[in-house]
Amino acid sequence: MRDTLLVIHIIGVAAWLGANLTMAFAGSYNAGAEPSTRRWWAVTQGNMGRIYKSVAAVVVLVTGVWLVLDDAGISMGSTFVSIGYAAIIIGILFGIFVYGPGCRRMAQAIDEGDGEAERSANSRLAVVGGIETIILVVTIVAMVGGWGLRAPG
User: Fold this and answer.
1) Mind listing the pLDDT tens digit for each residue in 86-101?
2) Long-range contacts: 101-105, Cβ < 8 Å, 24+?
């Protein structure tokens, strides 16, 4: 059971990190596209940020808690577990309060032909995406390194 949970946990993390990297790549690549394509991407990015990444975060949370409860050597208060909780909370909050509204603003700016507002929204989303990606990478390093666990012996 532990291996199955760990695989699902890692898939959730990979989905979340992969979405961040896809959003960063496509966001920059999409800048010179036609307005209809840019608008489609703004809506898609908003859905990825609000829905897809939130679902991935919940999968990571549920499997992570289950893994901790199954392992007597790990406490809910372990440093790496606390970092994981923080990453999940931040990621979900970014989805709800940054990606959703930011992508709606970007789509509206495209509809109105307001290039400056579009670039501004896109830049903010890129910064937040970069911050979130750094948080995820630090969390992965903390998990793999078992930060807060005592070495046996």
Assistant:
1) 999 999 999 999 999 9
2) 102/46, 102/128, 103/42, 103/43, 103/45, 103/46, 103/49, 104/42, 104/46
